[in-house]
Design goal:
The complex is a heterodimer of chains A (1165) and B (318).
Chain A: E1 3-5, H1 15-20, H2 22-42, E2 46-50, E3 55-66, H3 83-89, E4 94-105, E5 111-121, H4 136-141, E6 153-155, E7 158-162, E8 164-168, E9 174-177, E10 188-198, E11 204-212, E12 217-223, E13 226-231, H5 232-239, H6 244-252, H7 270-284, H8 290-301, H9 313-324, H10 332-350, E14 365-368, H11 370-398, H12 409-417, H13 422-433, E15 451-453, H14 459-467, E16 468-470, H15 473-476, E17 508-510, E18 516-517, H16 530-543, E19 547-548, E20 561-566, E21 569-575, H17 576-591, E22 602-606, E23 616-620, E24 626-632, E25 643-646, H18 648-651, E26 656-657, E27 674-675, H19 698-708, E28 711-712, E29 726-730, E30 738-739, H20 741-745, E31 754-761, E32 772-776, H21 777-781, E33 787-796, E34 808-810, E35 834-835, E36 840-846, E37 852-856, E38 863-870, E39 880-888, E40 896-899, E41 904-911, E42 918-919, E43 928-930, H22 941-956, E44 959-961, H23 975-985, E45 993-994, E46 996-997, E47 1009-1019, H24 1056-1065, H25 1068-1080, E48 1081-1087, E49 1096-1099, H26 1104-1109, E50 1120-1123, E51 1132-1138, H27 1139-1150
Parallel strand pairs in A: 8-16, 20-23, 26-27, 30-44, 31-43, 32-41
Antiparallel strand pairs in A: 1-44, 2-3, 3-4, 4-5, 6-7, 7-15, 8-14, 9-10, 10-11, 11-12, 12-13, 16-17, 18-24, 19-21, 20-21, 22-23, 24-25, 24-27, 28-47, 29-33, 31-47, 32-43, 33-39, 34-36, 35-38, 36-37, 38-39, 40-41, 40-47, 42-46, 45-47, 48-51, 49-50
Helix pairs in contact in A: 2-11, 5-8, 5-10, 6-7, 6-10, 8-9, 11-12, 11-13, 22-23
Chain B: E1 11-17, E2 21-27, H1 31-43, E3 47-58, H2 64-72, E4 103-111, E5 118-121, E6 125-127, H3 138-141, E7 152-156, E8 161-171, E9 182-195, H4 197-201, H5 205-213, E10 220-223, E11 228-231, H6 242-249, E12 256-271, H7 277-297, H8 302-308, H9 310-315
The chains are: A alpha+beta (1165), B alpha+beta (318).
Amino acid sequence: MKKMGKQSGVAADYSALHELVKPHIDSFDYMVDKGLEEIFRSIKPVQVFDSFENKKLRIFLDKPEIFKPLRGGSKGMSEALLPFECRQAKISYTAKFTADVLLQYDDGPPIRESINFGQFPIMLRSKLCHFRNASPQKLVSCKEEASEMGGYFILNGLERVVRLLILPKQNYPMSMVRNSFRDRREGYTDKAVVIRCVRGDQSSVTVKLYYLRNGTARLGFWIQGREYLLPVGIVLKALVDTTDREIYANLTCCYSEKYKKGKGIVGTHLIGERAKIILDEVRDLSLFTHIQCLQHIGEHFQAVMQGLENENYSVVADAVLRAYIFVHLDNNYDKFNLLIFMVQKLFSLIDQTSVPDNPDSLQNQDVLLPGHLITIYLKEKLEDWLQKAIKSLEDEINNKNNKFNIRDVNNVKKVIEKGSTQISLAVENMLKTGRLVTQTGLDMQQRAGYTVQAERLNFLRFISFFRSVHRGASFAGLRTTSVRKLLPESWGFLCPVHTPDGEPCGLLNHMTCTCRVASYYDSQGNMRDFLKVRTSILDVLIGVGMTSSLPKLILAGPPVVLPVLLDGRVVGVIPTSEVEKVVAYLRRLKVSTASLIPDDLEVGYVPLSMGGAYPGLYLFTSPSRFIRPVKNISLPPEESQNIELIGPFEQVFMEIKCPDGGDGGTSNDFPATHEEIHPTGMLSVVANLTPWSDHNQSPRNMYQCQMGKQTMAFSSQAIQFRADQKLYHLQTPQSPIVRTSAYTKYSMDEYPTGTNAIVAVLAYTGYDMEDAMILNKSSVERGMCHGQIYQTETIDLSEMGRSSQGKRIFKRNNDDKSLHSLIDSDGLPYIGQMIHPNEPYCSFVNKVTNSKFTSKRKGTEPVYVDYVAVDTKNKDDLEKVNIRFRHPRNPVIGDKFSSRHGQKGVCSQLWPDIDMPFSGITGMRPDLIINPHAFPSRMTIAMLLESVAAKGGSLFGEFMDATPFGENGSKSQSLVDELGEMLKIKGFNYHGVEVLYSGVYGTELSCEIFIGPVYYQRLRHMVSDKYQVRSTGRVDQVTRQPIKGRKVGGGIRFGEMERDAMLAHGAAYLLHDRLHTCSDYHIADVCALCGSILTTSFIQQQKHAAREIGGLPPGRAPKKVICHACQTNRGMETVAMPYVFRYLAAELAAMNIKMSLQLSNATGT
Amino acid sequence: MEGVSYQRFPKIKIREVKDDYMKFELRETDASMANALRRVMIAEVPTIAIDLVEIEVNSSVLNDEFIAHRLGLIPLTSERAMSMRFSRDCDACDGDGQCEFCSVEFHLRAKCLTDQTLDVTSKDLYSSDHTVVPVDFSDSAGYDVPEQRGIIIVKLRRGQELRLRAIARKGIGKDHAKWSPAATVTFMYEPEIHINEDLMETLTSEEKRSWVESSPTKVFEFNHETQQVAVVDAEAYTYDEEVIKKAEAMGKPGLVEIHAKEDSFIFTVETTGAIKASQLVLNAIEVLKQKLDSVRLSEDTVEADDQFGELGAHLRGG
């Protein structure tokens, strides 16, 4: 049955909400738990040599620690700093970040010195936040919302979220075709194999393997903003001490003459020739041995490798290989094997035995998480700081004048400490502005746009910030639309409905409600030990028949065996005949709790195909992959719940059926092994709230996702303790009668967004045409859709006018009694006071000069003072004050409303109750009338269903379940029948229509009217914030035309197209009025002799004195104008013209162009 | 239609009267009359409602306007309303509304001193005039719930306080819905139902029953013993034409004929409690009369004739 029953009084469960922000919090926790240590370990120690003292000083870092946020910053006070204080005081939620710096002289014991890195921003509800695992009660007592989920930072009082960003899949060699590769250098083709290698500390280095037209390949990698290209042969030889024969055998292992054309053949006969070319290339450079190759690399890279200037070539080469080539691997044999694999994949791409991977598909993508971004940024900042410290140490040593002694630890520490607090500040600034200030680029595609402000316009908008995934700013400017395409690979991970219309369409996606991100923590919340995980996976694989790759061992290639890659490491090969069994076995181990195999292991089995994707078994355990739960139905059902977490890479090759029925077009040859848990899992949280969205035309659901996020709703429960710039608030919200299961799951009742309005669908009086709607004035008067805007002004006396003349304090000016009605004796307004435009609302006095100031209210409408918050940190005087104003925003004509089905409309008329049509039986009058024409073209059937269902629900006093794709009862009865039957039981028409009588005439309307309750939302676009009107007002200084801008009382541009319309109507007089008379009408004096309008000037007449004595009013003296050029007033004429014309003449004169006017009926000539 | 209006003498037959509910028949008049009565009942019968609120202390969670709005919507007993003056026409106080002829003062003082939330309700409003008090629903409704004491204005937690002075004035629903005395006023045309017995006889009893059941409301009844279909409650008919459609679907058009009587209306009136339902009807008729009087008394000038045409002459006793 569709009924959901009455609402239970059980305390709300917010765990589903917390799950939504988990990727953010988990990644930050990782940074705190492990990331910091990890980067400290990977930062290379720096050293400085003092040639006078002959001492070497090695500096490295250890023991990073971030504390919990405390009040009073670093000054010993131990009181907890709470987020609400940060919001109100406009400060940042930060905590102390310290570490030990170790100073090691020569090879002596290191000396430990603690160093302060400043105040580090803390993510809410992360491990370092005071609210970690806080109960709703505690949150409320700390002036937060009971459902506070965290996941964001508070910086200068603003809540900022790090945007999730799409990155290329880590540690997976991707074959790509891109025209830009061709432009690298002469001889390059557009094909390459690219791998983004990620270290344990999440920093990454992308390596590209380009194919050259002559059959060889080049390995390209970036060092300090420059790409370096090495012949692949040199790298192969430099990695491992090997022979040409071995390289040849390795490269050609995937081809055998036995194979002809068949399934899964990737190698062709060309591969042998290419291998020869690769080897010849190295030989031509006369590099034969491992050592020679290392020397070659070292020689070329010494200049760019910092700190290795004095080392020998092979050390430099080792460093290059370690730091730039396949950084996710630390064993050179593994690197060798991976490079061989990549070359094979590249050749197979060239020979078209496999297709390129699509970099726009989610299959080949990962996600960048906030904690990881901060980690890599912090690493770079620390490295920079160490370099800087070394530089300044060297400067001090070389500076002969001062008595700097390197042996003195305090001396050294003082030099090092310089700028150490800037490190946290750099991170804070990165989060504040979303801009990476970096030299290397951190292997990222973009520099800016990493963070956004999490507006709490309403809860849906707020939650969407955490679920949104951006494709990358660099794609926004792209003219091609292929990146914006909705690909089937993103099924279940990204919501197909919830993407904005217009500019960011398809680039800004939202995760589905079931989508998660793999993290460093397992389901119990324990840190994962990836080393252990990998060894256990290897054990399992070897146990099921994998031949593991060992040094010097040459393995066969597809189609006989499939290579197995575990996190970008070629671990072995598996016979093709066994692989399906192995995959199934691995999946079973994934699901079972007993095994060490993690539940989110991605088993990407790419089967053999005829020129499809390059085959192999790709296993991924790494974090920051998308994952989602599905049911594994191939396992016996008794084994737990059989919920398996799958990733987008493996999903493509899996058979997952959807329980909404049908086989989805799959044939019986491939029986489904998995099943979706519920079809609604493919929708985002916001899209899941649209009732019966499966009955709507799909664009309407997209519109609703947008509109749901701009609804004026119950934005926050802790509104009293917030100081947001602008907050929209609905005064009388209601819980929707018709709701989806997601509504209950995510406790949306905490933040309701609308009103159950009785909606009649009819054309009444014509005021509802073209998406306009009529509101019932009486309903509005009874409180429907009432709301207000809260706006906070912060007055910080320490910031404004940092004058030398003394401090300002809040104080009322007691001389001026007129202020007393507005401002209290403390200089602040009374709470509840109404303040009109241009009235002062707070006053302050300069302590020394005793000069008084007031802040005046701007704007055009009266407001109420809602709340005054003072900063009591400063004991003696108030310095900072937040004053919150309340703008009443009750519905007026011109306000925008919408249902939950993308049906928006503007209120065009407020009819009183008596004029509304009424039902003869119940006396019901609609709250809202919309036009029937809103339906045929838009096909929002769900809105009609909602109306009928809500009518039934309210008659039975129960909430109605409108979950899309819902199982439709057992009786195979259609939804409409079920709903209609409910109405019939209660004596209403089966179809939801009623006979209405005209409110004006009392006569029966000629047809039956569809009427019922529909949940209506009030959108934040309101006329009161938008209307623009002016008669006369300010004009532009230069052109004397009216200025633009609503705030400054400007006009609306009457532009060229408007002009065209006027001309087309022949409304010449109106046009003249608009463009000239009402704009920059000007009467200019023109000299008809020389035709100039610039050379005229007035001559002052001296006769004034005499006239005034005569007691006569000083009549307007006839203006005497002469032309400077002609030195006469003979030809003076007055001509009406736009003032800009005069301006044009002046501008032209400045360029030595004279503009002369010819007057047609001039008298002077 | 018939066009010419002629003087008629409408009749009212009261069927049911409760304090806040009334059902009556209005006969021998036309829709314009019935609708005028309905509109007047909703929008033009005066009541008293709080119109001006001076808030002294408000530390509750609701803002001042919200509380003022809620106070305004509380129905006040308004028997006196007809005899009161509109504050705008009051000569005793220059129209700013603070005299006994046009206004009633209320005080509300509430502070929560315990840990339990305190409900501030309409019962906490103290009136300066004992005839104008918040409507008490507890006895009339029948279901007397102990915790339901009046209409909740706001809830206070420990330490919160609400102190205010409110002035109630006379007003009409046209100005603001809070002055509307009617919760619901509706009328329907009385239906006239004729079953074509001859056709009905051609139906089987099964068909008869399904036909009877096709109406969502119980208009007809199928008597199992006599196998006859009879009209049991004509007024339950909602003009949904379900039965007619059903008859057509059964291939028996004309099985039943239903007409709305053009001159007979059944009114249902529900009040907010401000005045009694019976009083509402009487007051409405009074107001309607006054309105007609004002038209009649408006100078029989050419403009008036232009404005009302034939009706003007009619009103003047034609």
